[in-house]
Design goal:
The protein is mainly alpha-helical. The protein contains 6 helices and 3 strands; from the N terminus they run H-H-E-H-H-H-H-E-E. A 3-stranded mixed β-sheet has the order 2-1-3, covered by helices on one side. The radius of gyration is 22 Å and the shape is flat. The mean pLDDT is 86.
Length: 174
Amino acid sequence: LTPFIPHACEEAWHLLGHVEFISTAQWPAHDDTEMDIRLEALEEMVRFIAEAVRKHGPAGVKLFLADDWKRRAYEEFDKLVGKTRRPEEILRGMGGIKAPPGELDRLVKFLVKGRTPGYVPTLEEERAWLEQSLPYLERISSGKVEILMPDADHPRAKSGLPWRLAVVLCNGSR
């Protein structure tokens, strides 16, 4: 606030017991230990969904959670990507992950191009966090928001990723 109301801020600063001027005081140091990567990733996930809802104003929203094999792939990818960025080498390191044919290859190529969060939630954690966000998401959409499992009977059910759910915006006729 100091640039906008400098006199009031200087007075408040001195009332707090400081002797020097606020305009010459050191900025607070950044402390990474105060950050919670889980909450950062959750906020980014909810923001991603909210942007789609605000942009299209659907009558309902279906959110499809990611398969467990994708969660394991994210965790393994985070371990391997520090050693190499070559998809074929990363895939060799992920030999124990059972995925539909071609899907692991496609996921690794996608992940090499972007980034993954430093923390991958369990299915239960992600679902619980989304359930806490439901009142907000339902308020900004004009209808019901459903959280669905990846085995649901829908063409987009298998396309969800950890932290990047498959989002289906429904109009009033569905």
